[in-house]
What we know:
By secondary structure, this protein is mostly helical. The protein has helices at residues 2-6, 8-28, 34-66.
Amino acid sequence: xxxxxxxxxxxxxxxxxxxxxxxxxxxxxxxxxxxxxxxxxxxxxxxxxxxxxxxxxxxxxxxxxxx
Length: 67
């Protein structure tokens, strides 16, 4: 349970990336099929992961400078 609580911000970013991907799919196409939604959702998850990696690397560089 502690792990999930420590990762809740990461999950929020991933979920928001997924939602953004699905919204983009609906903006591109009025009636997207399943494969379009899955692809857009996957792109959204990749964007969310990229944001988390960017935050992690920025935080890591800050820690290295302090040491």
